[in-house]
Write the structure tokens for this entry.
Amino acid sequence: MDYRRWFDDSGMLYAYDLEEHQGRDAVVQIEKAWGGEVTGEKGRKSKKPIVKFVGLDKTLALNKTNGKTIARMYGKDGSKWAGCWVALYVTTVDYDGETRDCIRIRPNKPDVQRPAQNGKRAPKQEVDIESMIAAYGGCDDMEMFDALESDRKAAWAAIGSADKPRVKDAATQAHKRILDAENAAAMKATVPDAPEHPEPAGATLP
């Protein structure tokens, strides 16, 4: 048995479970989703959305980024995600000072919804431009933005020349919006609170 499985919950899906795809997306259909509890490092428990995929025994615990991605595609009501298709892929993330493999979900709805049959090659996956732009429009943190940028770069060659400026503009606006929000929060944290009872204009202290 792969030694890495000794560290993790055997019932959960991890990045190394997708190694057989060799860098390709794993296109899967959601069977059901529900709220559950997972045990993390040092035995810490936390509540997470859990997703079960058709044909897979293991389930995926959604982090905020993946949860937001599915919500942008199919709505926030997790009870209605059953039957929807998503594309899973492996990337890396910096966590607690080290680089770790992780599973991410594409913001575009995959058009490839069936594996190849009878030895025939599956049709080429196309990019859902509107879903990608909508994902940028709802992006509100840098972690999700980095994931979207990774997807954009991977799909760039498949995006038509007429749509590339639209996607790039959506990415630029999302990046500016996040930076502006971060700068505003930083400035607010450094500005001292105003006195509860400010002196009226023209008043002089005794």
Remarks:
- Residues 164-190 form the longest helix (27 residues).
- The longest strand covers residues 26-39.
